[in-house]
Design brief:
seven-stranded mixed beta sheet
Length: 321
Amino acid sequence: MVWTPHLDQEANISHQTEAALPSWNDGPTRQAILDFIDAADGLPVEQRVAVFDNDGTLWCEKPAYAQLLFMLRELGKAVEKDSSLSDRAEYKALLENDQAAQVELGLPAIAFALVELCAGIEPGEFDRRVREFMQGALHPDHGVPLKQMRYQPMLELIEELKDHDFSVFIVTGGGTEFVRGISRDYYGIDPERVVGSLIKYEVERDANNRPTLIRTNELHGEVDEGAPKVSNMQMGLGRRPIFAAGNSPGDTEMLEYAMASGAPSLAILINHDDAEREYAYEGEAGSFESERSFTDIGRDLGWTIVSMRDDWNQVFAPRGT
């Protein structure tokens, strides 16, 4: 039997469609998202899985990753306690903002040097430091709280998917624990639904012989970019996504994997083409170099390209939200 809506129901559906995604301009991009959600309504709820990259997809990643800003604060505090740390090549390059030295040293070496700053502390203490930093940190260019640098259209998209019984996850190249520290407050996504680059832990005994976890300075597995995003999704989610959103070559396999699900699927690529309201740049992976433009890759693979300039009537979340 074919379901035919009553006139009142048709009006209600039309009203809901018009009200959805208010920060998205009418056009092919918004319509592609709404059409996908409508098609996904016909799937079993357990198949409705959506994954989002974080940096540059859900919030602003320029002029520096929020996690890097946090680690620079940790570096400053460490140097206050032990000034000899400023002589270490990786730390010296950061403290002096020596771009040439940073390039010569390489991102992996600098990243692991920063990871060492929080080695030896418990997860709860790391979480406390992250929350404390994020409560007071301001964006270097815009001078507003970092929370305000979330993308309002993406927040609306997360809520729209959740309203249609999607399970929503963050799959990021950033540190798992860092993003977990803010995921519920910033995105309404529970910490256990965050998959990212994971630090190894050691189990030790405290003064009362109780087991406790201690952060190390080593990664558990690989940086969560490229193919590892797909394998880590399986380990963390146990389900295949039918929707994925990203903004850099580090998200390629994740978006391809969602599109190959065999179900109604959608992959969206956030194109940073709005120098006036945000920044204009080509998304890059943090842990490897790509020979091709990510937007060119997306067009070739049939992804939906989201133009910040043309598709969003508002970029950032309102103050105080």
